Every structure is written in C-alpha cells, then in structure tokens.
C-alpha cells in the first residue's frame, strides 16, 4: 500500500513540476498513438464498409481473418514489422526501424483489424431495408455508402476508442520496433517496463497513472461526443 501511495505522490510531483522528460514521453506517446489510430481509421473504415456491403467468394474467410486480427498479440506484430523493416528485410531500404514512424506502423497494424471488425458489425447492424430505401430515393453508390456510414457514426466512435485503447496501452511491438531509445522512441508503456526492471516501482507506478489518465482523458472526450450524438 505504501508503494502505491509513493507512486501516486511521485506521479503528482512529476505532473505538477512539469518534468521535461516525462512531458516529452507523454507527448510522444500521444503523438504516436493518435497517428496510428488515424491511419487505422483511414484503412479500417473503408475496408469494413466494403466487406459489409459486398458479396464475393471467400468473403466469410476474409471477415474471419479480420476478426482473428482483432486479437493479434502485439509481440507477434512487432516481430513481423521488425523483420519487414530490418536492414536486409523487404522494407529495410526505408531505414525507419527504431524510429517513431516504425512504431506508428506497428501500432496501425494492431488497430486496423479492430476498426475494420467494428465497422463491419456497425454497417451490418443497420436496418436491412435502409440501403434499398436510400437507393430507391435516387442516391448514387457513393451517396448510399456515405449515408450508411453516417448512420453508423455512433458505433464507429466506439471503433475509434477501441483502436486508440488498443495502441496506447501496448508495449511489446513498441519495444521491438522502437527500441525504447531515450528522447526518440521512449513512450509511457516502454518507460514503465524499463523502470520496473530497474526496481524503481514508484516511478513505474507514476508513469502508469499518467498513462491511465491520458487514456481516460481521450476516451472521455470521445464518449462525450458519442453521447451527444445519441438519439434521445
């Protein structure tokens, strides 16, 4: 109990003293995870809409793969992204391994199946005759898709929250592709692991509390937006 109290005390000191290193780590965590979430939205929502509205051979297999991807272990993602970006790997010429860009890449791979899977479920849960009604009113294919996405906006906000929550809290892929380099790729999760390994439990608890506060703040903002849009 004393250790937890010391961690809370340390966290408050680090926050209110505006510790430069902690501030940089927190901002980098937010930057990387928000960027990865945006990438996953740009990729996942169109794929989810396509899979929900299209019919083609093997569609169920593809959706099953997406649903399996929603539970991808981050360390597995980190392993394969590291192999891809290794100097002798297929994408080694980019020379982005152990950089924030590599971390965004890995986190986007983790979040995209989550966003895609929730998008599929959101579109498929719309009234079955809605698409027919929209088309009967003369809407084009693009307009029809836009209307269906707009009608699914509340569940899609849940996809944003799930995607962000999946990447802000992961540690395995971030360490493997980022290297936990001070001042470059060290984020809250990797810093917490490092401090725990060094036996600095008070600092580790402090970083964990900051991480929880950050995740809560972003999700609270998205929840407020979602509940304002909720039909009365």
Describe this structure as you would to a colleague.
- This protein has one domain (2-229): MetI-like (MetI-like fold), CATH 1.10.3720.10.
- 76% of the residues lie in helices and 0% in strands.
- The chain is globular and about 65 Å long.
- Helix 2 runs parallel beside helix 5 (100-124).
- The longest helix has 34 residues, at 20-53.
- It is an all-alpha fold and 232 residues long.
- The model has no long low-confidence stretch (mean pLDDT 86).
Task: Find the count of extended strands (DSSP E, 2+ residues).
Answer: 0
Shape, principal axes of CA atoms:
globular
Q: What's the mean pLDDT score?
A: 86
For the largest beta-sheet, the strand count, sense and barrel status come to: none
For the record, what CATH class applies? Mainly Alpha
Helix content: over 70%
Q: How many alpha or pi helices?
A: 11
Count of distinct structural domains: 1
Summarize the helix and strand pattern as letters.
Answer: HHHHHHHHHHH
Q: Find the CATH topology.
A: MetI-like fold
* CATH homologous superfamily caption: MetI-like
Present the secondary structure layout.
Elements: H1 2-16, H2 20-53, H3 59-69, H4 74-85, H5 100-124, H6 130-136, H7 141-151, H8 153-168, H9 172-178, H10 188-197, H11 201-229
Helix pairs in contact: 1-11, 2-5, 2-8, 3-5, 4-5, 4-9, 5-8, 5-9, 6-7, 8-11, 10-11
